[in-house]
Each structure stands twice: as structure tokens, then as C-alpha cells.
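Give me the fold.
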Amino acid sequence: QVQLVESEGGFLQPGESLRLSCKGSGFTFSNYGLYWHRQRPGKRREWIAGITSGGSTNTADDVKGRFTISRDNAHNTLYLQMNNLKPEDTAVYFCNVLITSGALEGDYWGRGTQVTVSS
């Protein structure tokens, strides 16, 4: 079955960096666009970054220039490099793949990983 497993988040101070990873299995990883989302305390889940199967990327305005999404198809792994973290980046971070056809059709999510930024 399709599985997405995020790496452990952490407790960081403002200005620090963290790289999250998301390991995919059960599907042909290289064929699909992949996404990162987050849910901040008391807020709805929001999209923050996406990468196409061809490697084109896009990021939300409030993380642009600080967060970078990338992928390693050889290792079925999606990354989110987060630099210059701010307290408002405190959230649960989720990776996601949307498979729109075939036997695996569905919207799949990892369980999420907590990132806390505080001094």
C-alpha cells in the first residue's frame, strides 16, 4: 500500500535550520508530484511547497526564500529544507501525494511531524 513517512521534527530556536524528509513506498515515486503542507496551532492545514515529477518547484509566499523542496527519486525521498526558522513556523508538517488514476488512486498523507520554533 502507499505509505509516506516523515522524519522526526524537533524543537529549534529562531534562526536555526532543519531538513525534513519523507520516504515514500508502495507507488512509483518518480511519477508523481509531491507536496508539503503544515498545520499551525489553531489553524487549518495549508499547502507550503510542491515539486512536480520533472523537478519543477513552487513554494508559498510566506516561506519563499527560506524553505526549499527537493526530491531524490533514487531513494524515494522528498525533502523540505527549512532555513531561518521563525516561531510562526511552529506546526505539524505533512507530506502528501495525490494519485489521480489507476488502482492506487487516492490522496495519501504522512502522519505528520511536529516542528516547534521557540526561544
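The chain has no helices and eleven strands.
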